[in-house]
């Protein structure tokens, strides 16, 4: 404990202990733990139901397990993770790399799925890792953003690069590589929250007209000028571990009597883009390589307005892949290489992915956003952090 405190790892270790589901089970359901033969993530359990084998992909190990993120294997016997979890090595599945064979489809699974028995089952990776591969992100100069419930920005590296000190990069869907990720918890969940709390009018109109509500929300965004007339949002609706810290809260500053819910909605999208741009700059610094390309996937990428303001805030063309279902496409790329349909991952990505629409940044909007980002957004957290701490102390929230 003293050593962890000395190197600043106390909070991540504490979080690992608290979030390890096995610890909850042994404390609250000891009779179940006493009967536990294997301890699997959902991916490992589904693989077992498909093949009858206790195997899982290295690219799926993003849970609270004794996993060595540097070597992509289970942790060594002296690793601290074995000390703070009841899991033993024999409880865990064998690991294979993305693109390798997990087993063959069992007759009962084949019948249930309407597929031939004996089909090879190929390892892929976690949803975000597959999304990056399906977006064509193979190198650290390409940043892949996901506008999903959790908003993320990732770069793929051959080298082990911690996006934040003591926070490991996740295993990539590209074997032997790492995904350095900066995450904004409650990312595009905030958009869903806004629609639920303030967007019933658009939803009702869309129902009456038989159109998608998203089209009307894009109109809402476009009715407001870039910069939301000075309304600035910090999207920390859920706290982080280190960046931001556990005391962080969301904030909106700059209100005036001209502002409407349309300004708030645009400020949400801009705040998410500001936070992800900050992540992009951190990744570029830690990678030691400039980011030249920006790919944006996930459900939120279907909004043209969100794509355009992303391009303007980043000052880079925002490229939307030809499909927003890039996670499924990334898994298919792993399978295609594993089956020998393509000789390697570069060939598979070249053949199976392509850029759809590209949103070019506006010089005028980018200049405005540059000032707001540099002179206001980057100063917000440091100035508000003492107040966040006081709020947490007074109210006890967040715990």
Question: What does this protein structure show overall?
Answer:
The chain is an alpha+beta fold and 399 residues long. The protein has two domains: 123 residues, 2-Layer Sandwich (Nucleotidyltransferase, domain 5), CATH 3.30.420.40; 275 residues, ATPase, nucleotide binding domain (Nucleotidyltransferase, domain 5, 2-Layer Sandwich). 44% of the residues lie in helices and 15% in strands. The protein is built from 15 helices and 15 strands. The strands form five sheets. It has a seven-stranded mixed sheet with strand order 9-10-8-7-13-14-15, with helices on both faces. Strands 1-4 form a two-stranded parallel ribbon. Strand 2 and strand 3 form a beta hairpin. Helix 7 packs across helix 13 and helix 8 crosses helix 9. The two termini are 21 Å apart. The model has no long low-confidence stretch (mean pLDDT 93).
